[in-house]
């Protein structure tokens, strides 16, 4: 055995790498100024790191030069007996039961090696003819080698057990705990490499992990498909975390190619081989079970009978050919788990940039490109093959996961049984459905696949039960088709596509048959269910096509997507046309009410026609059915088309009516009721204020048509039923004496003028004439009503409502809750739900960099009333208001920004402590004197003392390094914070004037950020640290606080010394870094970004639909973004009456009663189930009052000027329908005079001529 004695140079810890290449990543899109700051900081860190490396190299060269000039490189002769005595003493000590003996022995060997220059061999040494210059020759080294080998084995066993323990497994998290565990694992691998060569270390560790994987996949009970699926599902997370841990650990000690080869052989290849063995065992057990069951008399399933032919053929090859539906489902679960594991490997590779080297693509190769001999290497030759692979690696390799090869022998039986099972499921579901007259519907089950975000509004809510049952079977077995994407396995995919096409065509055909049954033998409610089912099948086929797109040799054109689209369009057209026809031929057939020539009044003119009331009832019930089944967008389109079609019928009928004097009131009451009903429904069919108030003929033709038809009906009401005296007054002077300017102005607003006429308080005429809807001061109330009228929560509309008018909805909710009002009830549950609402609001507004003032606008009144601004200065307080939900959110946002800094500082301290243990290791603390006394004298190993001076120097260097790192990354940390949070602190800085002197240098945000950093360091990153690491972190905290001007108590000499050294090495550097950070959070920078929200109150640009969409993406990309929006929507719907009252009170229309906001999540804000009696007597939430409609007070002074400017032909036609202009009309003298004047103006004739 040769011990190399190189030099007697004591190791000193020098932390020269001052600037870690790490940045705080922003969770939102950064501004240009932030990007520039990040790029500048990165460039500066690169330059500083380069200078640091050059300095380290110069110091190392100087140190080597000094030792080379001395006499310490002379050969040293170590006595054979002395060496043997030391090794046997160490060997005997390792065989004791003393705790920590292995760690003490390792530290002693490392200390001897570093201080005395003794190189212990890490390989099985053989006698060579020549030796190195400084080698200690020993001709009788067999006993020494045996002792050293035994020591190595004991230490290796200890290190491998520690590496394999569950406490050391990490999954690559970026937290402090993950960094510390990874550093511990790296250190243990380095200790192994001190004892053994790299190939042997990896080989032995690989054997250990191979056994771990085998034990994880194997069980104690006989293997079956069901047990294997459950076992694999349970083992998958552990496999992912273990592979991730080894990838992140071994990349620090081995080359990338060697690492990937290790992962391939240790994990991926082992999983593939084990999977092959286990599936073969499952097939054998399945064959045994099948033979056992078939020997007994009993009824056989249709599926088994269809698959029996393939069973005999496959059984001859030793593979189970009679797979049951349950076995196929279990196989599909196995494939699904393996596909997810495959995706995890792909994701893991993309997160490891060190693999993206030239020639080494970042990918996972699904089919192993190796020879058959290599893939079938016997288990006994595994070690030799691994050593050969790890040593050679002539070419870069990729991760190779060949788990699909385990299914090759199952291709034929799976293909045959797959077809039988799916066809049987389709047949059974159709047979059950054929017996029902009314289609059974079910809520759409939770799908394993999701539609693109742009198509979420097109997802149906309920579908036909038989469709759901059939598609569920396909979804369960879809992983089998996804598995088979390569040539040897394509038969399964081809069979799946073929059966899918056949079954989908059959289902579509059945839907067509059921559609033809309406209305002869099936009710109308079947049509929405059929339409929803057709839409779901169409989306499902698109999903199948997308999933199987990589199988180029499988023709996906067989899928009946086009036929399904045609069926969807046909069903939608059938539904709308049937409803319109039903209204025209049945509901509107009201002979008694529409007998316009009757000289008797209809119910004394005090109620509308029964047909109008039934039409309202029919549309309201239809809306409920559409809302419950169809996608929101489709439901709105269908209802809008039906509403437009029925209005067209009504407009045609009433425009042709020539009533008698007694029946004129009937037309007025009917049209008034129609307009009230349409006003209630038009909110439901509009998805935005633009569609409601400024509809486009091309974008939303049905809404445009609804407005046009309502204006026609209103024209009939005005020109046919207006009092003759009012009509004559506005007709004087020809053309009614109306100025052209007034007519032109009114004609511009003619599109929605009927809304102003029927609801003047809700739709004032002046705002409607504005070119932009968002400039309307009433938009908040409009948005609130529009949002509550939608079929479901519309995220875009909700976000627009929240931001409108300086976030008035959110401010009203907070101002009328326990946040701003003292609640005498003191209900803990209510407060808990309120805190959850506050957290949701904070999470939604925080990422909105385009509107940085929104968060401050919402919280400003709350912060003022509860005096919370001071707590932004003292973020570490834990009592009183500091525990409020919003301050917890602010604290969490700041902690997220400093999380990587805390992790890095803790890892830095622990790394320094580990090397300090090696440099200042006192053997008296570990090894007994009986071992230390055996250390050979030639090594000149002297047990060191505490070496307080060098330890103090190391502490100073650590503190300087930590401070340099914090101040270097501080601007990046500020830039990573969202602008709304920066704006909140910028506003708060003006409110905490009592701390102005302390904040003059740093500002409130930097002060709060460093305070959070110090608190997290004090907590040790929520890790359990020993007192030495805690003391170092406490010293770092004290240095940071002193540097920020927050020194507590008397001056600490150590802190002053550290700050002085840092200032001497970099004059004014900390001040410049603070100025950079302050520039990013100061108010002057944010003034360029408008703080207001609504136009006219903050000067911000208009919130267009595109900008709202971009902000919605930012919100939904945050964790829990969609859930937060839905929670806010729930609270708004729950408190809709309170919001309406407060909005009216803010405009001075009424005094809102003092009410508390209900934050209960258990309450249901949706309207109750459809009640026919209630619906019949109400229009929306208001009562369908016949007397109120008959006495409706129309503003003829506003209406007549607008409609007398119509085209002469239309005007003359409608005026001719007035009862006064009929030949048999009995007129008084005064009336006759007025009629003559009308005819002279519009008809150029006289009644008496």
Summed up:
By secondary structure, the chain is mostly helical. It contains 49 helices and eight strands. Among the domains are: 196-415, no CATH class; 436-576, no CATH class; 588-788 and 1190-1243; 795-866 and 1093-1183, no CATH class.
What's the helix and strand layout?
Layout (H helix, E strand, L loop, with lengths): L3 E2 L26 H38 L10 H15 L6 H16 L1 E2 L22 H23 L11 H20 L2 H20 L7 H26 L5 H39 L7 H14 L9 H26 L13 E2 L6 H4 L6 H11 L6 E2 L10 H24 L6 E3 L18 E3 H19 L6 H27 L9 H22 L13 H27 L22 H20 L2 H25 L4 H25 L3 H5 L7 H21 L2 H8 L8 H9 L4 H6 L6 H4 L10 H10 L6 H21 L12 H18 L8 H13 L2 H5 L11 H35 L9 H4 L15 H28 L3 H13 L4 H4 L4 H15 L8 H17 L9 H13 L3 H13 L1 H4 L18 H12 L4 H14 L1 H11 L25 H5 L1 E2 L2 E2 L2 H5 L5 H8 L4 H8 L13 H15 L6
Parallel strand pairs: 3-4
Antiparallel strand pairs: 1-2, 5-6, 7-8
Helix pairs in contact: 1-34, 2-4, 4-5, 5-7, 5-32, 6-8, 6-12, 7-8, 7-10, 8-12, 9-13, 10-14, 13-14, 13-15, 14-15, 14-16, 15-16, 15-17, 16-17, 17-19, 18-19, 18-20, 19-20, 19-22, 20-22, 23-49, 27-28, 28-30, 28-42, 28-43, 29-43, 32-34, 32-37, 32-38, 34-38, 34-39, 34-40, 37-38, 38-39
């Amino acid at each position: 055995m040769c011990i190399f004695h190189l030099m007697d140079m004591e190791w000193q810890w020098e932390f020269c790498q001052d600037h870690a290449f790490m940045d705080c990543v922003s969770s939102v899109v950064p501004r240009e100024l932030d990007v520039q700051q990040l790029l500048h900081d990165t460039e500066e860190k690169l330059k500083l790191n380069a200078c640091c490396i050059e300095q380290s190299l110069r110091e190392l060269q100087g140190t080597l030069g000094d030792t080379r000039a001395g006499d310490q490189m002379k050969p040293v002769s170590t006595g054979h007996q002395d060496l043997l005595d030391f090794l046997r003493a160490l060997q005997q000590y390792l065989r004791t039961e003393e705790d920590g003996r292995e760690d003490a022995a390792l530290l002693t060997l490392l200390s001897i090696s570093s201080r005395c220059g003794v190189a212990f061999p890490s390989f099985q040494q053989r006698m060579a003819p020549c030796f190195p210059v400084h080698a200690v020759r020993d001709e009788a080294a067999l006993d020494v080698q045996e002792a050293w080998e035994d020591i190595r084995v004991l230490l290796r066993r200890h290190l491998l057990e520690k590496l394999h323990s569950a406490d050391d497994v990490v999954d690559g998290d970026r937290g402090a705990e993950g960094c510390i565990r990874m550093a511990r694992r790296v250190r243990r691998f380095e200790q192994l490499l001190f004892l053994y060569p790299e190939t042997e270390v990896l080989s032995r560790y690989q054997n250990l992990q191979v056994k771990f994987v085998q034990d994880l996949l194997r069980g104690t009970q006989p293997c079956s498909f069901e047990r294997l699926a459950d076992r694999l599902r349970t083992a998958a997370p552990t496999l992912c975390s273990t592979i991730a841990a080894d990838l992140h650990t071994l990349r620090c000690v081995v080359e990338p190619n060697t690492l990937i080869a290790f992962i391939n052989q240790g994990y991926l290849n082992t999983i593939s081989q084990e999977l092959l063995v286990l599936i073969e065992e499952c097939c054998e057990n399945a064959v045994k079970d099948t033979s056992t069951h078939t020997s007994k008399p009993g009824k056989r399933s249709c599926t088994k009978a269809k698959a029996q032919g393939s069973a005999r053929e496959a059984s001859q090859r030793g593979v189970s050919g009679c797979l049951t539906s349950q076995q196929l489902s279990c196989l599909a679960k196995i494939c699904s788990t393996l596909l997810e594991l495959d995706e995890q490997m792909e994701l893991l590779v993309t997160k490891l940039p060190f693999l993206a080297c030239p020639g080494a693509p970042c990918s996972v190769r699904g089919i192993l490109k190796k020879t058959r001999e290599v893939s079938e290497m016997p288990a006994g030759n595994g070690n030799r093959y691994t050593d050969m692979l790890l040593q050679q690696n002539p070419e870069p390799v990729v991760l190779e996961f060949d788990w699909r090869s385990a299914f090759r022998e199952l291709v034929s039986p799976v293909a045959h049984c797959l077809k039988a099972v799916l066809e049987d499921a389709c047949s059974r579901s159709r047979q059950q459905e054929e017996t029902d007259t009314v289609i059974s519907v079910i809520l759409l089950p939770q799908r394993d696949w999701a539609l693109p975000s742009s198509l979420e509004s097109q997802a149906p809510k309920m579908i036909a039960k038989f469709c759901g049952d059939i598609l569920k079977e396909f979804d369960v077995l879809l992983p089998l088709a996804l598995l088979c994407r390569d040539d040897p396995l394509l038969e399964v995919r081809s069979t799946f596509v073929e059966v899918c096409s056949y079954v989908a065509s059959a289902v579509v055909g059945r839907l067509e048959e059921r559609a033809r049954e309406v209305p002869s033998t099936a009710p109308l409610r079947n049509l929405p269910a059929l339409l929803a089912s057709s839409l779901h099948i169409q989306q499902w086929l698109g999903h199948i096509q997308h999933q199987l797109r990589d199988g180029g040799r499988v023709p996906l054109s067989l899928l009946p997507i086009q036929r399904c689209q045609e069926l969807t369009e046909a069903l939608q057209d059938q539904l709308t046309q049937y409803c319109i026809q039903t209204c025209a031929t049945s509901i509107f057939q009201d002979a008694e009410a529409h007998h316009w020539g009757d000289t008797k009044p209809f119910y004394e003119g005090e109620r509308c026609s029964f047909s109008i009331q039934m039409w309202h009832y029919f549309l309201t019930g239809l809306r409920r059915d559409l809302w419950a089944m169809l996608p929101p967008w489709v439901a709105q389109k269908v209802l809008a088309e039906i509403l437009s079609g029925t209005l067209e019928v009504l407009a045609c009928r009433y425009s042709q009516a020539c009533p008698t004097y007694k029946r004129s009131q009937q037309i007025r009451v009917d049209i008034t009721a129609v307009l009230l009903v349409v006003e209630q429904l038009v909110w439901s069919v509009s998805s935005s204020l633009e569609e409601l108030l400024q509809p486009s003929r091309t974008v939303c033709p049905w809404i445009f048509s609804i407005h046009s038809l309502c204006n026609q009906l209103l024209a009939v009401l005005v020109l046919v039923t207006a009092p003759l005296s009012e009509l004559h007054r506005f007709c004087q002077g020809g053309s009614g004496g109306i100025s052209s300017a007034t007519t032109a102005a009114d004609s511009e607003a003619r599109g929605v003028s009927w809304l102003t006429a029927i609801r003047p308080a809700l739709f004032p005429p002046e705002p409607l004439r504005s070119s932009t809807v968002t400039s309307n001061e009433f938009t908040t109330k409009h948005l609130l009503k529009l949002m509550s009228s939608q079929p479901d929560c519309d995220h875009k509309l909700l976000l627009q409502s929240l931001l409108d008018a300086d976030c008035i909805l959110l401010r009203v909710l907070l101002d009328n809750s326990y946040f701003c009002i003292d609640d005498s009830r003191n209900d803990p549950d209510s407060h808990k739900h309120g805190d959850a609402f506050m957290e949701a609001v904070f999470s939604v507004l925080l990422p909105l960099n385009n509107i940085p003032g929104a968060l401050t606008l919402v919280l400003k009144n709350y912060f003022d009333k509860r005096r919370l601004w001071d707590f932004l200065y003292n973020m570490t307080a834990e009592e009183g208001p500091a525990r409020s939900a919003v301050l917890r959110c602010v604290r969490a946002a700041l902690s997220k920004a400093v999380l990587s800094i805390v992790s890095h500082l803790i890892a830095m301290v622990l790394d320094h402590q580990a090397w300090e243990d090696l440099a200042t290791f006192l053997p008296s603390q570990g090894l007994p004197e009986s071992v230390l006394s055996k250390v050979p004298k030639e090594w000149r190993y002297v047990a060191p003392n505490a070496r307080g001076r060098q330890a103090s120097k190391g502490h100073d260097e650590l503190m300087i390094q930590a401070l340099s790192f914090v101040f270097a990354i501080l601007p990046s940390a500020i830039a990573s914070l969202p602008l709304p949070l920066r704006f909140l602190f910028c506003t708060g800085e003006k409110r905490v004037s009592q701390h102005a002197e302390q904040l003059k240098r740093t500002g409130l945000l930097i002060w709060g950020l460093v305070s959070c950093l110090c608190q997290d360091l004090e907590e040790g990153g929520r890790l359990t640290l020993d007192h030495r690491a805690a003391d170092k972190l406490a010293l770092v905290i004290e240095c940071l606080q002193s540097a920020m001007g927050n020194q507590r108590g008397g001056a600490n000499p150590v802190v002053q010394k550290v700050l002085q050294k840092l200032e001497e090495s970099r004059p004014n550097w900390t001040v410049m870094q603070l100025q950079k950070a302050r520039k990013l959070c100061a108010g002057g920078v944010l003034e360029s970004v408008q703080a207001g929200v609504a136009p006219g109150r903050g000067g911000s640009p208009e919130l267009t639909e595109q900008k709202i969409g971009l902000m919605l993406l930012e919100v939904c990309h945050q964790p829990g973004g969609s859930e937060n929006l839905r929670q806010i929507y729930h609270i708004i719907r729950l408190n809709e009456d309170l919001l309406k009252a407060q909005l009216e009170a803010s405009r001075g229309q009424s005094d809102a009663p003092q009410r508390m906001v209900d934050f209960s999540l258990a309450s249901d804000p949706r309207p109750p189930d459809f009640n026919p009696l209630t619906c019949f007597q109400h229009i929306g939430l208001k009562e369908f009052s016949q007397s109120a409609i008959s006495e409706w007070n129309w503003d003829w002074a506003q209406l007549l000027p607008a409609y007398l400017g119509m085209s002469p032909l239309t005007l003359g036609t409608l005026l001719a329908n007035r009862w006064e202009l009929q030949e048999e009309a009995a007129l008084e003298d005064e009336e006759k005079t007025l009629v003559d004047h009308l005819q002279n103006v519009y008809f150029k004739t006289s009644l008496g001529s």
